[in-house]
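C-alpha coordinates as discussed.
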Protein backbone atom coordinates (compact mmCIF):
# COMPACT_ATOMS: atom_id res chain seq x y z
CA UNK A 1 0.00 0.00 0.00
CA UNK A 2 1.43 3.39 -0.97
CA UNK A 3 1.58 6.18 1.58
CA UNK A 4 -1.29 8.67 1.70
CA UNK A 5 1.17 11.50 2.36
CA UNK A 6 4.88 11.46 1.61
CA UNK A 7 7.19 14.21 2.84
CA UNK A 8 10.92 14.42 2.20
CA UNK A 9 13.69 16.99 2.65
CA UNK A 10 11.36 19.52 4.27
CA UNK A 11 13.26 22.61 5.35
CA UNK A 12 12.17 26.10 6.37
CA UNK A 13 14.32 29.08 7.25
CA UNK A 14 12.94 32.29 8.74
CA UNK A 15 15.91 34.56 8.33
CA UNK A 16 18.66 33.03 10.45
CA UNK A 17 16.30 30.59 12.17
CA UNK A 18 16.27 27.07 10.72
CA UNK A 19 12.76 26.22 11.96
CA UNK A 20 12.31 22.90 10.12
CA UNK A 21 15.34 20.73 9.34
CA UNK A 22 15.19 17.98 6.75
CA UNK A 23 11.92 16.45 7.95
CA UNK A 24 10.90 13.29 6.10
CA UNK A 25 7.87 11.17 6.97
CA UNK A 26 5.18 9.00 5.46
CA UNK A 27 1.58 8.75 6.63
CA UNK A 28 -0.26 5.54 5.73
CA UNK A 29 -4.02 5.40 5.07
CA UNK A 30 -6.04 4.85 8.24
CA UNK A 31 -3.27 5.71 10.69
CA UNK A 32 -3.51 7.97 13.72
CA UNK A 33 -0.08 9.56 13.95
CA UNK A 34 1.08 11.84 16.74
CA UNK A 35 3.67 14.59 16.35
CA UNK A 36 5.43 15.15 19.65
CA UNK A 37 7.84 17.85 20.74
CA UNK A 38 8.41 20.78 23.09
CA UNK A 39 7.20 24.29 22.34
CA UNK A 40 9.19 25.71 19.45
CA UNK A 41 10.07 22.29 18.02
CA UNK A 42 8.54 23.15 14.63
CA UNK A 43 5.35 21.10 14.83
CA UNK A 44 2.88 23.78 13.70
CA UNK A 45 5.35 25.05 11.13
CA UNK A 46 5.31 21.56 9.58
CA UNK A 47 1.49 21.74 9.41
CA UNK A 48 1.72 25.18 7.78
CA UNK A 49 4.16 23.84 5.20
CA UNK A 50 1.99 20.82 4.40
CA UNK A 51 -1.18 22.88 3.95
CA UNK A 52 0.20 25.73 1.87
CA UNK A 53 0.11 28.49 4.48
CA UNK A 54 3.86 28.95 4.05
CA UNK A 55 6.21 27.69 1.34
CA UNK A 56 9.06 25.28 2.11
CA UNK A 57 12.63 25.96 1.13
CA UNK A 58 13.65 24.60 -2.31
CA UNK A 59 14.25 20.86 -2.59
CA UNK A 60 11.26 19.66 -0.56
CA UNK A 61 8.88 16.91 -1.64
CA UNK A 62 5.26 16.88 -0.41
CA UNK A 63 3.04 14.37 -2.21
CA UNK A 64 -0.56 13.59 -1.25
CA UNK A 65 -2.30 10.76 -3.07
CA UNK A 66 0.26 10.99 -5.84
CA UNK A 67 -0.15 14.77 -6.30
CA UNK A 68 2.54 17.27 -5.38
CA UNK A 69 1.33 19.96 -2.97
CA UNK A 70 4.25 22.28 -3.62
CA UNK A 71 3.09 25.75 -4.61
CA UNK A 72 -0.60 25.07 -3.94
CA UNK A 73 -2.71 27.57 -2.00
CA UNK A 74 -4.42 26.33 1.19
CA UNK A 75 -7.84 26.15 -0.47
CA UNK A 76 -6.45 23.89 -3.19
CA UNK A 77 -4.79 21.63 -0.61
CA UNK A 78 -8.14 21.42 1.19
CA UNK A 79 -9.93 20.56 -2.05
CA UNK A 80 -7.55 17.64 -2.57
CA UNK A 81 -8.59 16.16 0.79
CA UNK A 82 -6.55 17.64 3.65
CA UNK A 83 -8.33 19.55 6.42
CA UNK A 84 -6.82 21.06 9.55
CA UNK A 85 -7.65 22.77 12.80
CA UNK A 86 -5.57 25.42 14.55
CA UNK A 87 -4.00 25.91 17.98
CA UNK A 88 -6.30 28.86 18.56
CA UNK A 89 -9.92 28.51 17.54
CA UNK A 90 -10.65 30.60 14.46
CA UNK A 91 -14.42 30.65 13.92
CA UNK A 92 -15.92 32.94 11.32
CA UNK A 93 -17.18 35.69 13.62
CA UNK A 94 -20.51 37.17 12.60
CA UNK A 95 -21.80 33.85 11.25
CA UNK A 96 -23.90 31.29 13.05
CA UNK A 97 -22.63 27.91 14.16
CA UNK A 98 -24.39 26.27 11.21
CA UNK A 99 -23.06 28.83 8.74
CA UNK A 100 -19.50 28.21 9.96
CA UNK A 101 -19.77 24.54 9.07
CA UNK A 102 -21.45 25.25 5.73
CA UNK A 103 -18.58 27.57 4.78
CA UNK A 104 -16.13 24.81 5.72
CA UNK A 105 -17.74 22.55 3.15
CA UNK A 106 -17.83 24.97 0.23
CA UNK A 107 -14.52 23.89 -1.22
CA UNK A 108 -14.69 20.26 -0.20
CA UNK A 109 -14.40 17.24 -2.43
CA UNK A 110 -17.62 16.43 -4.22
CA UNK A 111 -19.60 19.05 -2.33
CA UNK A 112 -23.05 19.89 -3.67
CA UNK A 113 -24.57 23.18 -2.58
CA UNK A 114 -27.92 21.61 -1.87
CA UNK A 115 -26.41 19.06 0.49
CA UNK A 116 -24.26 21.47 2.49
CA UNK A 117 -26.96 22.48 4.95
CA UNK A 118 -28.04 18.91 5.71
CA UNK A 119 -24.44 17.72 5.97
CA UNK A 120 -23.54 20.60 8.29
CA UNK A 121 -26.44 19.70 10.59
CA UNK A 122 -25.33 16.04 10.66
CA UNK A 123 -21.80 17.03 11.53
CA UNK A 124 -22.93 19.34 14.31
CA UNK A 125 -24.95 16.49 15.78
CA UNK A 126 -21.95 14.20 15.44
CA UNK A 127 -19.67 16.55 17.41
CA UNK A 128 -22.24 17.27 20.11
CA UNK A 129 -23.51 20.67 18.98
CA UNK A 130 -27.05 19.71 17.98
CA UNK A 131 -29.49 22.42 19.01
CA UNK A 132 -26.86 25.15 18.77
CA UNK A 133 -27.00 25.61 14.99
CA UNK A 134 -28.51 29.10 15.14
CA UNK A 135 -26.22 30.51 17.81
CA UNK A 136 -23.59 33.10 17.03
CA UNK A 137 -20.16 31.50 17.35
CA UNK A 138 -19.10 34.23 19.78
CA UNK A 139 -21.37 32.84 22.51
CA UNK A 140 -20.02 29.28 22.35
CA UNK A 141 -17.90 28.00 25.21
CA UNK A 142 -14.25 27.33 24.41
CA UNK A 143 -14.90 23.59 24.45
CA UNK A 144 -17.76 23.97 21.98
CA UNK A 145 -15.56 26.11 19.75
CA UNK A 146 -13.09 23.20 19.65
CA UNK A 147 -15.91 20.90 18.56
CA UNK A 148 -16.98 23.43 15.95
CA UNK A 149 -13.42 23.51 14.55
CA UNK A 150 -13.55 19.76 14.02
CA UNK A 151 -17.01 19.89 12.43
CA UNK A 152 -15.88 22.62 10.07
CA UNK A 153 -12.77 20.64 9.10
CA UNK A 154 -14.88 17.53 8.46
CA UNK A 155 -17.30 19.49 6.28
CA UNK A 156 -14.75 19.46 3.45
CA UNK A 157 -14.86 15.62 3.37
CA UNK A 158 -11.14 15.16 4.01
CA UNK A 159 -9.12 11.99 3.69
CA UNK A 160 -6.49 13.41 6.06
CA UNK A 161 -7.34 15.43 9.17
CA UNK A 162 -4.59 17.48 10.85
CA UNK A 163 -5.41 18.42 14.45
CA UNK A 164 -3.26 21.09 16.10
CA UNK A 165 -3.49 20.81 19.90
CA UNK A 166 -7.23 20.04 20.03
CA UNK A 167 -7.16 19.64 23.83
CA UNK A 168 -5.50 22.99 24.58
CA UNK A 169 -7.41 24.96 27.20
CA UNK A 170 -9.85 22.15 28.02
CA UNK A 171 -10.61 20.53 31.36
CA UNK A 172 -10.18 16.81 31.94
CA UNK A 173 -13.83 15.97 31.27
CA UNK A 174 -13.85 17.97 28.03
CA UNK A 175 -10.61 16.29 26.96
CA UNK A 176 -12.08 12.83 27.50
CA UNK A 177 -15.19 13.72 25.49
CA UNK A 178 -13.21 15.25 22.62
CA UNK A 179 -10.81 12.30 22.59
CA UNK A 180 -13.78 9.94 22.25
CA UNK A 181 -15.08 12.08 19.38
CA UNK A 182 -11.74 11.84 17.55
CA UNK A 183 -11.79 8.05 17.98
CA UNK A 184 -15.31 7.86 16.54
CA UNK A 185 -14.43 10.05 13.58
CA UNK A 186 -11.41 7.90 12.83
CA UNK A 187 -13.24 4.59 13.23
CA UNK A 188 -16.53 5.40 11.52
CA UNK A 189 -15.29 7.56 8.65
CA UNK A 190 -12.00 5.81 7.95
CA UNK A 191 -10.12 9.08 8.27
CA UNK A 192 -6.37 9.28 8.58
CA UNK A 193 -5.51 11.59 11.49
CA UNK A 194 -2.33 13.41 12.42
CA UNK A 195 -2.33 14.97 15.88
CA UNK A 196 -0.17 17.55 17.65
CA UNK A 197 -0.79 17.59 21.39
CA UNK A 198 0.89 18.30 24.74
CA UNK A 199 -1.62 16.38 26.86
CA UNK A 200 0.41 13.21 26.86
CA UNK A 201 -2.03 10.88 28.57
CA UNK A 202 -4.71 11.29 25.91
CA UNK A 203 -2.10 11.62 23.17
CA UNK A 204 -0.66 8.20 24.03
CA UNK A 205 -4.11 6.61 24.08
CA UNK A 206 -5.08 8.00 20.68
CA UNK A 207 -2.09 7.48 18.41
CA UNK A 208 -0.73 4.39 16.65
CA UNK A 209 2.65 5.90 15.92
CA UNK A 210 4.68 8.91 17.07
CA UNK A 211 7.07 11.22 15.24
CA UNK A 212 9.11 13.30 17.71
CA UNK A 213 10.61 16.66 16.74
CA UNK A 214 13.13 18.91 18.44
CA UNK A 215 14.64 22.07 16.99
CA UNK A 216 12.79 21.34 13.76
CA UNK A 217 14.16 17.87 13.06
CA UNK A 218 12.93 14.32 13.63
CA UNK A 219 14.71 12.82 16.64
CA UNK A 220 12.67 9.61 17.02
CA UNK A 221 9.85 7.70 15.34
CA UNK A 222 7.95 4.56 16.26
CA UNK A 223 5.43 3.12 18.69
CA UNK A 224 4.30 5.57 21.39
CA UNK A 225 5.68 3.51 24.27
CA UNK A 226 9.07 3.31 22.57
CA UNK A 227 9.34 6.94 21.50
CA UNK A 228 8.57 8.41 24.93
CA UNK A 229 11.42 6.35 26.37
CA UNK A 230 13.89 7.35 23.67
CA UNK A 231 16.80 9.21 25.34
CA UNK A 232 16.64 12.14 22.92
CA UNK A 233 12.89 12.55 23.53
CA UNK A 234 13.27 12.32 27.29
CA UNK A 235 15.90 15.05 27.18
CA UNK A 236 14.06 17.28 24.71
CA UNK A 237 10.49 16.94 25.90
CA UNK A 238 9.62 14.75 28.84
CA UNK A 239 12.10 16.38 31.17
CA UNK A 240 10.97 19.88 30.25
CA UNK A 241 7.21 19.56 30.48
CA UNK A 242 5.30 19.36 33.74
CA UNK A 243 2.39 17.80 31.85
CA UNK A 244 4.44 14.71 31.02
CA UNK A 245 3.10 12.79 33.96
CA UNK A 246 -0.45 14.07 33.74
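Sequence:
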Amino acid sequence: MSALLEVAHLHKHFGGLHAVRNVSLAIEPGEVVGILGPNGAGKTTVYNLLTGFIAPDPGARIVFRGTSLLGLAPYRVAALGISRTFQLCRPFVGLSVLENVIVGGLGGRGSERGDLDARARRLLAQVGLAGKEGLAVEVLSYGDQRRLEIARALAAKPALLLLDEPFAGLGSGEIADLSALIRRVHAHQGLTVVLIEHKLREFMRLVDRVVALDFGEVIAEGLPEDVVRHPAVVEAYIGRDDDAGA
